[in-house]
Amino acid sequence: MKSDIRICSAWRDAHERPVYTLSSNCPECGADAINSAPAPFNPEDPYGEYRRALKRRAHE
Ligand SMILES: [Zn+2]
């Protein structure tokens, strides 16, 4: 069994930074914890995509 480090799936909304856990739920907010391996976020700009989404919405 390989070690699975998971990440809170709702960290962008619930936390200021990614929350990692070994359980299947976030220990801080209780959201599902997902496998962190494929997480495509850029640690230098974790809110970039969210910000761009807000910007698009603002222009509609
Ligand atoms: Zn969380």
From TrEMBL:
Domain of life: Archaea
InterPro entries with a match to the protein in the record: H/ACA_rnp_Nop10, H/ACA_rnp_Nop10_sf, Nop10_arc-typ
TM region positions: none
One Gene Ontology cellular component annotation held by this UniProt entry: ribonucleoprotein complex
Molecular function (Gene Ontology), one example: snoRNA binding
Keyword entries, A-Z: Ribonucleoprotein, Ribosome biogenesis, rRNA processing
A biological process from GO: pseudouridine synthesis
Gene3D superfamilies: H/ACA ribonucleoprotein complex, subunit Nop10 (2.20.28.40)
SUPFAM superfamilies (UniProt xref): Nop10-like SnoRNP
Similarity comment: Belongs to the NOP10 family.
HAMAP family: Nop10
Function: Involved in ribosome biogenesis; more specifically in 18S rRNA pseudouridylation and in cleavage of pre-rRNA.
Protein name (Swiss-Prot/TrEMBL): Ribosome biogenesis protein Nop10
Encoding gene, per UniProt annotation: nop10
